[in-house]
User: What shape does this take?
Amino acid sequence: MGFLAPGALALAAIVPVIVAMYLLKLRRTEQAVSSLYLWRRMVRDLEANAPWQRLRRNLLLILQLLFLGALILALARPFTWGSEASSGQVVILILDTSASMSAIDVPPSRLESAKALARQWVDSQPNSTRFTLITAGAGAQVLVASSQDRHQVHRALDGIQATAGGGDLAAAIELASAVAARQPDSLIVVLSDGRVSLPERLAVKGRLRYVPVGQSGQNQAISAMSLEPNAGGESSIAFVQVNNYGDAPARRRLDLYADGQLVNAFDLEIAPGDQSTVIADALPQGTQVVEAQLLGQDVLPLDDIAWAVYNDSGPTAVTLITEGNLFLETALSLLPGLQVTTVRPADLEEGWGDGQLSEGLPEGGDLLPQLSGPTDSMVSRLIIFDAYVPVAASLPSGNLLYIAPPRSTQYFTVTGTVEQPVPRPVDPEDPLLSHVNLAEVGILDAAHISLPDWARPVIVGYAGSEAVPLLLSGERDGRRIAVLAYDLRRTDMPLQVAFPLLLANLTAWLAPGSVGGLPTQVAPGAGVSLSVPPGIEEVGVTRPDGTGVSLVPGTGQLVFADTAKLGVYEIAWGQAERARFAVNFFSPQESQVQPAQVLPGLASGGDPRDESPQAARREWWRPLALVALALLAVEWLLYQRASVARLWGETRQLVRGKT
Amino acid sequence: MAGQLQGERRSPKRGQSVEFADFRLYARGDDFRRIDWNAYARLERLFIKLFVEEEDLTVHLLVDTSRSMDWGQPNKLWYAVRAAGALGYVALVGLDRVTVTAFGEDANDSAGYFPPRRGKAQAQALFSFLQTLTARGRTDLAGRLRSYAALAAQPGPLLLFSDLLDESWAEGLRALARRGFEVTVMHILAPDEVDPQLTGDLKLRDVETGADIEITADYELLSRYRAGLAAWQAELRRFCGARGMHYVPVETTIPFEELLFAWLRQRGVLK
Assistant: This one.
């Protein structure tokens, strides 16, 4: 308890003045009356409760003195030291909304208790404090920017919901730090369970206080899951991996549902920090969706359920146009899910006829009738040109792989050859080069291709100081195109492991199956893209909760990103084309819900590690001023009580007279 | 009422008049002239024939001239004097004696006393006397009334014009009742006393005694005042009723003619 302006207490000198004025004022007006007889009779009654009368006579004085006292106290600005409050003029609240905040170890959930803490924090601050509220979900989002309106903060807090994904606390802290850098005396409060990844040394301007939320880390999660047809094709096989992220052994039961039917149940005993793998290999043939459920209770129910889907797409038609290439034909025949048709260029050109060529460029389908594959219904998805480029400029639909193009095409320009280029990956992490080791590869010569604007180089070859693209990929006219610049017969690559791997990667990208490259597993909130055959006007997506949405695909490509809900999504297009993908909560980071008591790797900028509770002044002049106002009102009413009572009595009489 | 001279009022005494009252046996000393000889002839016993005596009365008018009476708008004393004059005139016309006594501070001297007189001719003197009355000093109502009751030669109808604003009114009225007066209390109050128009913190000073009292005149207090006044008047009415007195509360705002011709007849003061 103390006073910010103790000088105001000197105003107490007014008190004797009021008392003196009151004593002077007590001289009453004299009024002559005929006799005091009746007045005395009445006053005798009054004097029966004389102490109260005396008090009442002095009530005005007492009220005036109280009013003055309250006013002087308010002017002196008393304050008390509060333990939870902060003296910061700017408070930036960061609320972690990552999936681990959905844990229910602190009822009703970590997020709700964090919101309650935030509300308490907001209410305990002085009125002048400005609040900024940032949520750290998939990205940092500013809900309230530097506002003094507590109701706005409360409303924003009410609307916050946990996401199913990770929390980008680093971005939120950087954002808050940027806000704090502009305003001095700011305090950043992080309400989180600490299950976040932060950069090594995150510099924070202003003071930072981390309030850990959560108690328990006892959580088991389905961390991986897949569904494949068995090798023989008679049955399906499901793979489920369950992790125990807690620090105690866990016994859980895992139920497996195949297309909605319970088909298997496993009792799992998992040591702390260990994992258990379940393989269910006798699922009915043609199983499309498998759902795995962990029974029982843990702190995060979100990760106790997972789905795996299998889209029965059938083989992808691949047309290989070659004079004969043993390496290529062998490698393609070994890749699963492909139905390869080999065509010789001479046969191809025979079918066209000379006249057709000279007459220009008819429809692609007519131009290459052989390319329509073994059955008419099956459109070739991938056309591989091995050391050959067709004369025709128009090609049927499908993705293209050019190997050692002898001359320029409509997509790229060949300007010559390069002698003995040394291949180097542009980006080792490129999915096309996954597991491909180019260090041992020697190349005799390669076509010199100038890089077109639609493509990016995947492998470049260094010949002297010049770098030429050896493998380039890209998308053009709604089709995926890859160009391998060197002939497979003029390199030792086919003799190395790198070749089948590279070919597998290329075909996986160029011939993604009939479902148009749809992944079967997607993280929550991530987008999926789907190659849609031409002519499809509308694509329907059914969400796990049964609601549907209708989308219009762009140029052969559909992107759907509304995948916040966990579960199985179904995409339908054309006559009866169906494909599914599962959105699963596979996040070891979020499933490890053990709250961290200290934020990992965090260093506060100016005032490091200011995590101790901050004692702060709480001022009391507002309630005192309110009390003074109330006293003043009461005093006035009391002074005017004669008029008020008369008014009241007359009104009552009037009402009574009317009734 | 018994009187001295023969007048026009019925007397409780038996006397000489034309109105027969009763018979009684002759006793020695009775006037022979009043023996009913017809009765003697029939019954051979001597009866005295009794007649209702009609005699005059002394009407006592007592006017309170204490300073508290010189108050109000219209003035209470002025109102009392007019009422006394009117009723005195009525009495004089009715062949009654009228005496007026003012209850001022020095009521014992002759200035405040109108001795009993009779006859319509005395009306002018009565009026002149009443006009000389002024309010002075304070009233010791009990003492004055007690001494008046003791000194009055002949009790009779008594009209008391007073505001009774004195602690001892009960004792005084009791003394009058004991002496056998036929008392009518004309309780005169000014409108200011019935419904005082006061506000604020006041020091009330008694014009009669000079004493003062501090009050805060608010609605509540004034309501209590009115309630107290009503209770007092009810108490007076009960007190008077119990002793066969007429109690007539009079507010000076009542028109004088109305008082005489309606109020007093209604209450049986005038016939």
Summary: Chain A is about 25% helix and 30% strand. Chain A has five domains: 2-28+51-81+621-658, 90-215+595-614, 220-313, 316-354+363-510, 521-583.
